[in-house]
Specification:
Number of strands: 10
Low-confidence stretches: 12-28, 31-41
Structural class: alpha/beta
Mean pLDDT: 85
Order of helices and strands: HHEEEHEHEEEHEHHEEH
Distance between the termini: 92 Å
Strand content: 15-25%
Number of helices: 8
Helix content: 25-40%
Length: about 240
């Protein structure tokens, strides 16, 4: 019996390999986890570079409602729409100036209709899903009406405001992310109050160059420079704040 047991034990050792050396376990407490960081950006669309020259990424496709408000120029909104479409996301543009978006709708998607244009208030249900995410861009002027198609799972909404309009406070309250481009000192002071910006950011807003956007949340803020690619410059021209 003993010989059989020894042979069985030897067989198990051959199958599982040599016993591993016993060492102390490496344990990290919950408090120490906050000090660990992985040098990877968010998954999404590269919208430019930050002040340190690192890529700035906007995660548009999310399983929860995600609203973005951009107080800025048409050029930036169109670049964001084109880059989002390049990731395979369908883009629906609600606009009262269809001619300004016609080139984008024609050129995006290499012949596939991935960018569609709709009159204000006439955006149909998009049927967004994890396999077919959607970005709705609302280019509806200073006072955009409440949209028929709202943000939802895998359907984000980007609202473009040319200036700080009376409807801006409502939109900012419902937005998870706000982009601000060059504006007057009075507008900068007002947006500083609404977004709780530090004085240095408020002072910088009237001096921002074309293509520069301050992207901010209630807890974080980052200046991002967006440079047009060769294709984007051919379609939309050089970066500009005023259309």
């Amino acid at each position: 019996m003993r010989g059989g047991a020894e042979r069985a034990a030897a067989g198990r050792r051959r199958f599982f390999g040599l016993p591993a050396p016993r060492r102390e376990r490496h344990v990290v407490t919950a408090a120490e986890l906050d000090r660990l960081a992985v040098p990877l950006g968010d998954d999404g669309v590269v919208i430019g570079v930050d002040a340190e020259g690192r890529p700035a990424v906007l995660g548009v496709n999310r399983p929860i409602p995600y609203e973005v408000t951009l107080i800025g120029g048409l050029w930036t909104a169109q670049v964001l729409a084109l880059r989002t479409a390049a990731t395979g996301t369908r883009v629906a543009v609600e606009t009262g100036r269809g001619r300004a978006w016609a080139d984008l709708a024609r050129e995006a998607g290499a012949g596939q209709q991935c960018v569609t244009l709709h009159e204000v208030g006439r955006v149909p249900p998009q049927g967004a899903s994890a396999g077919g995410p959607v970005l709705v861009v609302r280019d509806c002027g200073m006072r955009p009406p409440r949209g028929r198609v709202a943000a939802g799972a895998w359907q984000s909404v980007l609202t473009l405001l040319p200036y700080l309009s009376p409807t801006a406070p409502r939109l900012l309250r419902s937005s998870a992310l706000v982009g601000v481009q060059r504006m007057s000192p009075d507008e900068a002071a007002r947006i500083g109050e609404l977004m709780r910006l530090p004085p240095s950011a408020v002072e910088a807003l009237p001096t921002l160059g074309d293509g520069v956007t301050l992207w901010c949340t209630p807890r974080d803020r980052k200046f991002v420079l967006t440079r047009g690619t060769e294709q984007e410059t051919a379609l939309f021209g050089a970066a500009r704040r005023v259309d």
